[in-house]
Design brief:
- The complex is a heterodimer of chains A (94) and B (264).
- With 94 residues, chain A is an alpha+beta fold.
- Chain A has one domain.
- Helix content of chain A is 36%, strand content 24%.
- In chain A, the strands form 2 sheets. A two-stranded antiparallel sheet of chain A has the order 1-4. Chain A has a two-stranded antiparallel ribbon with strand order 2-3.
- Chain A starts with 14 loop residues before the first helix and ends in a 5-residue tail after the last strand.
- Chain B has 12 helices and 8 strands.
- In chain B, strand 6, helix 7 and strand 7 form a beta-alpha-beta unit.
- Chain B is globular, with a radius of gyration of 19 Å.
- The chains are: A alpha+beta (94), B alpha/beta (264).
- Chains A and B meet through helix 1 of A and helix 7 of B.
- The complex binds adenosine-5'-triphosphate (ATP) and magnesium ion.
- The site of adenosine-5'-triphosphate (ATP) has 21 residues of chain B, from helix 1, strand 7 and helix 10.
Chain lengths: 94, 264
């Protein structure tokens, strides 16, 4: 049933709060696009950190910024998603 | 040697021209020699806001194309000592000027004036590039709405890419009644999100419309709240510390009143 006083109803929040959250989210995207180097830098650093353990397919590596629902309150939040194809595990117990 | 300040926003209609006219006039009232440059080629506006539209003979494009000397195009505002306008061309378009010509023009103006305020057109194309070409510093004007703040963020990034660092923010058109109801973004949140220093907050104020009708900037009206806020900004530009205006004139009055009556 439709619940007028239901929690999570957007009308419960002050519109300034909704504006603030939407603004933050949109800026994450805008800013990432303004500097094309940004994601490349992250890519490079991630590979640098894990390459001692895993041989990755650097060409197939994908990093994007998207939105995702935060679990505990269903608010949309920005998320950094990395898709890192593994060629081979390097780690061996000594 | 003077300083070139570009007044920019990205989004149109947030109050760049109003800000340029008011801060420029206020700086001249504080004893500085100021020129306000209308860089909105093709959409001349600053002349009518300042009430100088009947005095234009030559414009900025005439100067850069060598049709007249710089002195001939500068309009001296006879009401305020040390205030000048360099008008935009109305019949040409933005491509009539190149960034390197603006840079050269700015250098010449710096020899003559303490402050050179550049009224930037909306957008991020050629007109924007021209307007920032000779700028030492930038003032970003925004309004408390998502679209305006988003554009401000983009502009801050573009300024940085052009090596104009640490721009200052003016939030214009703030409606106290809506802020109180929680229907307008908080100033603190905006400066937080934009990671930028606040230069001033200007209320949405009918006195701006009235003063624009008259062609007399609001800073010359003692009773204008927006005018007072602009004057404070001029002081801050000069390096003087001025507390931020309590825009909440009615609210604090109401609160005192309510307390007396035993509310709250
Ligand atoms: N604080 C204010 N209170 C009330 N009205 C305002 C205020 N600031 C600006 N305005 C009005 O808003 C309109 C747009 O202002 P202005 O021309 O200064 O903006 P702009 O950013 O220069 O616009 P454009 O992008 O078209 O150049 C004008 O009608 C002006 O009178
Ligand atoms: Mg304008």
């Amino acid at each position: 049933m439709f619940n007028m006083f239901g929690r999570g109803n957007r009308r419960d929040h002050k519109s300034k709060e909704i504006a603030k959250e939407r603004l933050k989210l949109v800026l994450v995207h805008d800013r990432a696009n303004v500097s094309p180097h940004f994601l490349e830098m992250i890519k490079g650093d991630i590979v640098g950190v894990i390459k001692d353990y895993i041989e990755v397919d650097e060409k197939g590596l994908e990093i994007t910024i998207t939105k995702t629902k935060r679990e505990y309150d269903d608010t949309m939040v920005p998320a950094l998603v990395a898709n890192i194809p593994i060629k081979r595990m390097k780690y061996r117990e000594k | 040697m003077g300083e070139v300040l570009v007044i920019t926003s990205g989004k149109g209609g947030v109050g760049k021209t109003t800000t340029a006219a008011n801060i420029g006039t206020a700086l001249s009232l504080l004893g500085k020699k100021v020129v306000i440059v209308d860089a909105d080629i093709g959409l001349r506006n600053l002349d009518v806001v300042m009430g100088l539209e009947n005095r234009i003979v030559y414009d900025i494009v005439d100067v850069t194309q060598g049709i007249c000397r710089l002195k001939q195009a500068l309009i001296k505002d006879k009401r305020y000592d040390g205030l000048y306008l360099l008008p935009a061309a109305q019949t040409k378009d933005k491509t009539a000027i190149q960034p390197k010509q603006m840079l050269a023009l700015s250098k010449r103006l710096k020899e003559e004036f303490d402050y050179i305020l550049i009224d930037c057109p909306a957008g991020i194309e050629q007109g924007f590039k021209n307007a920032i070409a000779g700028a030492d510093k930038a003032i970003v004007v925004t309004a408390p709405e998502i679209s305006a703040v988003r554009d401000a963020d983009r502009i801050i990034g573009l300024l940085e890419a052009n090596e104009i660092y640490n721009p200052k923010l003016i939030v214009n058109k703030v409606r106290i009644d809506m802020v109180k109801k929680g229907d307008m973004m908080d100033i603190d949140d905006m400066i937080d999100i934009l990671a930028i220093e606040l230069l001033g907050v200007i209320p949405d104020d009918q006195s701006i419309v009235i003063s624009t009708n008259r062609g007399e900037p609001a800073v010359t009206d003692e009773n204008s709240l927006a005018g007072r806020a602009f004057k404070n900004i001029a002081e801050r530009i000069l390096g003087n510390e001025v507390p931020f205006l309590d825009l909440d004139v009615d609210e604090s009055f109401f609160r005192k009143f309510a307390r007396k009556l035993g509310f709250k």
